[in-house]
């Protein structure tokens, strides 16, 4: 053993931690580049004050084009759950905000997405339905940011949608077993 390894074992530990495999590193990494994260946070600071208004616009647009999604949000008696219909898009926007503001790692994102997955299961929404909703949200967010839109922002929102869908897909697959 060398003098360094005997007297300074933390140096060896640090060097071995820096050689992590990519799969371990991915669990600790948010998946966004620094530039994408800055673009998302800047975009979110512009959008956040108008979340309620934006959610109403998205709700109207989404459910007028895709009535079948709204039709799934019913209780056991077959009645439309108005509270959930009105707030569903708002909750999705808050999910976006939580992931963006806190730069969540995939492990933490999975925990944040869990209530959404439970809600989807409650209303029998499939992956296609949630994908349509997230695409509609992204379309509206990018339209609101049209004056300050960059390719980095578009790529970051694409990656954010893919991360959310990935976690939902794995959860749906898990519950299907």
Automatic annotation (TrEMBL):
Classification via InterPro entries: Globin-like_sf
Tree of life domain: Eukaryota
SUPFAM superfamilies (alphabetical): Globin-like
Protein name: Uncharacterized protein
Organism: Ceratitis capitata
């Amino acid at each position: 053993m060398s003098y360094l390894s005997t007297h300074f074992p933390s140096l060896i530990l640090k060097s071995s931690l820096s050689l992590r495999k990519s799969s371990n590193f991915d669990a600790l990494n948010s998946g966004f580049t620094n530039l994408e994260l800055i673009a998302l946070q800047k975009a979110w600071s512009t959008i956040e004050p108008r979340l309620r208004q934006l959610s109403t616009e998205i709700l109207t647009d989404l459910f007028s084009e895709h009535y079948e999604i709204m039709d799934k949000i019913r209780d056991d008696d077959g009645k439309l759950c108005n509270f959930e219909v009105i707030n569903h898009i708002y909750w999705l926007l808050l999910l976006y905000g939580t992931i963006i503001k806190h730069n969540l790692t995939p492990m933490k994102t999975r925990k944040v997405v869990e209530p959404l997955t439970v809600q989807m299961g409650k209303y029998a929404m499939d992956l296609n339905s949630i994908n349509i909703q997230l695409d509609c949200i992204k379309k509206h967010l990018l339209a609101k940011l049209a004056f300050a839109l960059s390719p980095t922002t578009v790529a970051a929102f694409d990656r954010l949608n893919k991360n959310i869908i990935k976690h939902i897909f794995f959860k749906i697959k898990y519950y299907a077993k």
